[in-house]
Specification:
This protein is α/β, with parallel strands linked by helices. The chain folds into two domains: 372 residues, no CATH class; 108 residues, 2-Layer Sandwich (Transcription Regulator spoIIAA). Helices cover 60% and strands 7% of the residues. The protein has 22 helices and nine strands. The strands form two sheets. Strands 3, 4, 5, 6, 7, 8 and 9 form a seven-stranded mixed sheet that branches. Strands 1-2 form a two-stranded antiparallel sheet. A hairpin with an 8-residue loop joins strand 8 and strand 9. The protein is globular. The termini are far apart.
């Protein structure tokens, strides 16, 4: 977008964007503090990340409504990066943070290159249930640690524990809590889970996280937590000071830290890019004006933000879906809402640091427990089961492997599980990556796609590349009556493409869907042709 167009939109919608940016910043402030602290970063650096994401990245972004900033979905990989680097360097957590920053910067450079090379469509490869399973696992991992901080359990007893060990310690933690801290954590959880249930329109406009922050500070003052320590705990957040200094270290690019650097670089690029691109696609579906983001440009913008944020000491950023959804709900119109959200955050940390330093750890821990619950809520398991039992297998398998190993192995285990299901259903291995697809122009100026064999998550990308070559405004007919299998991910992505194509003025027609058998009553369930059904019956 040219600068004159950017400033034209500012003139047209600055009032709505200013208000939305302010409201989103109220949501972002406590979450940024909590995400950074849980990631092993100085909490103030989470706010700095969002400031960069708003005030700088807005001018490079390929989307109008997404809010850029740190995300709960990256807490686990960032924390593990800091911890691994620290453990490899004599337990020096400050050095661990600085080495992790080096990974953030290099990951940002790679994201810029990937965006310029226009490879954002790689997001189409991953099976949706595996992605959601990975996010659910992240939610469980977040809860496994934060619940101990919310009830005032001795932090030294959970240090170095893996997620399974932390989950096993919950009964002990609840019976050895510190009541002054647990009171703050408990009240915070009641607010976070209770406020969304209140139907009052005015209350619904108030961000629960902001209420938690205020109530936490008040309770802390009443209990005089700032003047004492309970059982050697540190009940207040060590926020740190906002300084725009260069903090990143690139010593991990060589020597004994190289293996840790490479592993975390893959995770930062893969998970960060994947989550950001998926968020961008989701927000496009919510845009009242039906605008379509340039995801390659947006990936480049996120990369630029990560380079700057990493150099200054901040977290990796993505297009964050919860804050972006809030932006739409608050009436945000253009990228200026993201810019204003960054401006307000800068004002907050300049004027309110003394108050922010009074926020109890338990308040931020409660916010993260709530975020983790939303990622791993029981309804996510139920929703996946309704799509199809095989999708629940992929979902749960990804959750289990991620919790017991790490994110990289977890997401790829989901891919392997889905392929195994396809294999059991009789899908030839040759269909896994290369779709048997015929494309031809018909006499009435329509483009006919005929799919033979199977439509799978792993071969959809090649189908998508042929679909995007069709001119807008034309008619596409997609014939599936001869297929053996359309898996859930293939069908959902194809349906989303059809929706976008028709919003752009074209016409998309499915042919032969009535010839296939649904594997559940869900509209996006996998569909099987006669050969596939016979294989299952056998």
């Amino acid at each position: 977008m040219r600068n004159k167009n950017i400033f034209k939109t500012l003139q047209e919608s600055w009032q709505k964007d200013l208000l939305s940016g302010f409201l989103v910043s109220l949501i972002a402030l406590p979450l940024c503090l909590g995400i950074a602290g849980a990631s092993g970063f100085p909490p103030i650096m989470g706010v700095m990340t969002a400031i960069v994401g708003g005030m700088i990245v807005s001018f490079f972004a390929g989307s109008e409504l997404t809010i850029k900033g740190p995300a709960a979905g990256l807490i686990v990989i960032v924390f593990e990066a800091v911890e691994e680097f620290a453990n490899a360097n004599g337990g020096n957590t400050v050095l661990g943070w600085k080495l992790a920053l080096g990974v953030v910067v290099v990951a940002g450079i790679i994201q810029v290159i990937l965006g310029v090379l226009k490879v954002a469509s790689v997001v189409e490869f991953f099976p949706l249930s595996a992605v959601h399973g990975m996010l659910a696992a992240i939610g469980i991992i977040i809860i496994s640690k934060q619940i101990h901080l919310a009830d005032g359990f001795d932090p030294s007893l959970i240090k170095g524990k893996n997620p399974l060990q932390l989950l096993e310690m919950i009964p002990e933690s609840l019976t050895h809590l510190t009541w002054q801290i647990a009171l703050i954590g408990g009240v915070s959880l009641v607010i976070l889970f209770g406020m969304p249930l209140i139907k009052n329109k005015i209350i619904k406009q108030i961000p629960p996280a902001l209420v938690v922050l205020i109530v936490g500070v008040v309770l802390g003052l009443i209990e005089n937590i700032g003047g004492r320590e309970f059982a050697n705990l540190k009940p207040l957040v060590n926020v740190g000071d906002l300084k725009f200094d260069f903090n990143a270290s690139f010593a991990g690019l060589s020597g004994p830290n190289l293996t840790i650097f490479i592993k975390n670089l893959i995770l930062f690029v893969l998970i960060g890019s994947l989550e950001s691109l998926l968020s961008g696609k989701a927000i496009d579906l919510l845009d009242p004006k039906h605008r379509k983001s340039n995801l390659n440009k947006d990936l480049t913008a996120v990369g630029i933000g990560n380079i700057i944020s990493g150099l200054l000491g901040g977290l990796p950023m993505i297009s964050e879906i919860a804050r972006s959804s809030a932006n739409i709900n608050n009436g945000g119109q253009t990228r200026w809402a993201n810019f204003f959200h960054g401006v307000f955050l800068l004002i907050f940390v300049v004027l309110l640091v003394p108050i922010i330093k009074m926020v109890p750890v338990a308040s931020l821990a409660a916010m993260l427990i709530f975020v983790g619950f939303r990622l791993a809520a029981p309804k996510e398991f139920i929703k996946t089961y309704k799509i199809g039992p095989e999708q629940l297998i992929v979902f749960i398998g990804t959750v289990i492997v991620t919790i017991t190993t790490d994110l990289l192995i977890g997401i790829f285990s989901g891919i392997v599980i889905e392929w195994l299901i396809h294999f059991i259903w009789g899908v030839p291995i040759k269909d896994y990556f290369k779709p048997d697809l015929e494309v031809k122009k018909t006499e009435d100026h329509k483009t006919l796609f005929i799919l033979y064999g199977s439509g799978l998550f792993s071969n959809y990308l090649k189908v998508h590349k042929k679909l995007v070559k069709i001119n807008k405004g034309e008619t596409i007919e997609f014939d599936v009556q001869r297929v053996r299998l359309l898996d859930h991910t293939f069908l959902e992505k194809l349906t989303h493409f059809a929706h976008d194509y028709e919003n752009d003025g074209g016409k998309f027609v499915f042919l032969g869907m009535d010839k296939l058998s649904n594997l559940s009553n869900h509209p996006m369930s996998a569909r099987m042709g006669t050969k596939g059904v016979e294989k299952i019956l056998d």
